[in-house]
């Protein structure tokens, strides 16, 4: 996936596959040559080779638990189950049993189709590990297996045997996992228990709403959401915000705005006021937005930077660019001042005062007293506005000047690489991404972007695989990187393996590009009806997604 990798905020994404305390150096008497060869293979993205070298090092150092642990860690990401088994056995012999060991053991059992052994290992994690145990168990089921259907069966067996913890957070995580694995019936059974034990749990309630909506029962979804909105579950502002956003997902952002307006405490919470304004803008409710704007303006006599910045943003929503400009120019200081100065240039551009906008951006770029990030962002903003003008030469010039002022600045190089890629100039896109990697060889964003670009736009698939493997080693549960990995496997003709990885990525992040990739692989496997279901999911998330448009062109839809 061609974008910056982002942290995942899902409980299932706990990185339990990383073994603890594995960073110590091998002693002088240890197998230094093998360990160094392993690290070189890791840095080159040759994962299977790294596992082989670490196993050699571990065999040669019978007392070194760290080497065996490191071999296990990388074997978990590889495809050689025999290597994983050997590495795990060596680790078990040399160190006390840990949750990570148990998780690795359960993963191996799932991979090799040993359903009962996997279930026993997961039951032990659930029984003895507390919250970390069930997080580990769910992570194994969500990301450790090559067969989502098998993971769903094992999760169902754990549920039927009463092995799943019943506290609200654990049940909602189990429900989310069931949905991610595509087992709607299992979600329904978990949800029934949750409703009986924790009828007012808002997290499970929101999952229930999304499940109903996804399965075409939008009327029922709305009833459940209305009950949540009028119940006692909205004690905290963050839950209220999530419920409001879910109304927008169901196509009624105005209802979400009404919910936020009904909160007496929200008037002083500018974050909630800003969310309400965005929902009203999405609903195109100009009257309500104007009333909110008027109320905000009444308190603007006190020079509160956050309030004045928000007033400028609401004025933009109301298509009052002149007022927006005045508000942005009146922001007195603080971190909001930098944002306001940048937004003011965007407003000038929208007012068709492009010369003033670019003059203001040049002034920011040359302001020696300005924060360096603001100066850098001024070049990025200029490139964005030039792109809106359709002036590719001026867009390129803005980025080139930015790079002259901030040599090899990653954000500027990344933005220029995306520009080259959009214009089908893959060699130049590659050159800029490689410049990022010269300065920061471990940049997962650049590794992933370059690997995905080579996989998607060239036939250099083996090289792409090595780059993506390097990113995957650093962030094994990052959905964007797993998506790239699945896509390069597809390009290599390994369609079944690709399907497993792409579905795993979608479990972690519901993204239109990932869904489009799943649909493409299914289409190539001849499973056309399933493919169209995935394309419809992608369309529901983002109908304008570029990967979806390309997929539809390829399949003739």
From TrEMBL:
TPR repeats lie at residues 512-545. Pfam families: TPR_15. The keyword DNA-binding does not apply. It comes from the Bacteria. SUPFAM superfamilies: TPR-like. Keywords: Signal, TPR repeat. InterPro entries: TPR-like_helical_dom_sf, TPR_rpt. Residues 1-23 form the signal peptide. The keyword Signal applies. This is Membrane protein. It comes from Luteimonas terricola. The lineage of its organism: Bacteria, Pseudomonadati, Pseudomonadota, Gammaproteobacteria, Lysobacterales.
């Amino acid at each position: 996936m061609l974008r910056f990798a982002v942290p995942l905020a899902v409980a299932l994404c706990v990185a339990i596959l990383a073994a603890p305390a594995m960073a110590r150096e091998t002693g002088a008497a240890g197998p230094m040559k093998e360990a160094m060869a392993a690290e070189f293979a890791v840095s080159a993205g040759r994962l299977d080779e790294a596992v082989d070298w670490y196993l050699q090092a571990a065999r040669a150092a019978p007392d070194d638990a760290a080497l065996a642990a490191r071999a296990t860690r990388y074997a978990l990401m590889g495809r050689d189950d025999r290597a994983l088994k050997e590495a795990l056995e060596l680790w078990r012999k040399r160190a006390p049993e840990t949750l990570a060991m148990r998780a690795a053991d359960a993963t191996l059992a799932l991979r090799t189709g040993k359903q009962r052994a996997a279930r026993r290992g997961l039951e032990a994690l659930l029984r003895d590990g507390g919250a970390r145990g069930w997080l580990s168990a769910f992570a194994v089921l969500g990301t450790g297996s090559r067969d989502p259907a098998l993971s769903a069966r094992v999760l169902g067996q754990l549920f039927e045997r009463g092995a799943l913890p019943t506290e609200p957070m654990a049940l909602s995580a189990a429900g989310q996992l069931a949905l991610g694995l595509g087992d709607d019936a299992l979600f329904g059974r978990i949800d029934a228990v949750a409703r009986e034990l924790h009828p007012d749990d808002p997290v499970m309630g929101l999952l229930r709403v999304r499940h109903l909506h996804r399965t075409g029962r939008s009327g029922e979804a709305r009833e459940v959401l209305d009950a949540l909105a009028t119940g006692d579950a909205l004690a905290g502002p963050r839950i209220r915000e999530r419920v409001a956003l879910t109304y927008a997902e169901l196509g009624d952002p105005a209802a979400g705005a009404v919910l936020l307006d009904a909160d007496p405490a929200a008037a002083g919470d500018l974050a909630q006021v800003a969310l309400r304004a965005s929902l009203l803008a999405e609903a195109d409710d100009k009257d309500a937005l104007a009333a909110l704007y008027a109320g905000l303006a009444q308190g603007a006599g006190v020079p509160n930077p956050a309030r004045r910045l928000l007033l400028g943003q609401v004025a933009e929503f109301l298509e009052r660019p002149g007022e927006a400009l005045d508000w942005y120019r009146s922001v007195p200081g603080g971190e909001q001042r930098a944002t306001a100065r940048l937004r003011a240039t965007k407003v000038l551009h929208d007012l068709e005062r492009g010369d003033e906008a670019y003059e203001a951006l040049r002034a920011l770029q040359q302001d020696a007293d300005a924060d360096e990030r603001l100066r850098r962002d001024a070049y990025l903003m200029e490139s964005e506005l030039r792109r809106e003008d359709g002036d590719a030469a001026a867009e390129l010039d803005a980025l080139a000047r930015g790079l002259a002022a901030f040599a090899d600045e990653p954000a500027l190089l990344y933005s220029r690489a995306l520009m080259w890629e959009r214009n089908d100039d893959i060699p130049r896109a590659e050159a800029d991404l490689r410049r990022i990697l010269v300065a920061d060889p471990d940049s997962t964003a650049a590794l992933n972007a370059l690997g995905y670009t080579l996989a998607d736009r060239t036939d250099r698939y083996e090289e792409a695989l090595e780059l993506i493997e390097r990113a995957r080693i650093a962030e094994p549960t990052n959905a964007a990187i797993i998506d790239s990995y699945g896509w390069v496997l597809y390009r290599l003709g390994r369609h079944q393996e690709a399907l497993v990885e792409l579905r795993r990525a979608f479990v972690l992040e519901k993204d239109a590009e990932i869904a489009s990739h799943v649909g493409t692989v299914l289409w190539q496997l001849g499973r056309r009806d399933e493919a169209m279901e995935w394309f419809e999911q992608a369309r529901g998330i983002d109908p304008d997604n570029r990967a979806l448009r390309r997929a539809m062109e390829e399949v003739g839809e």
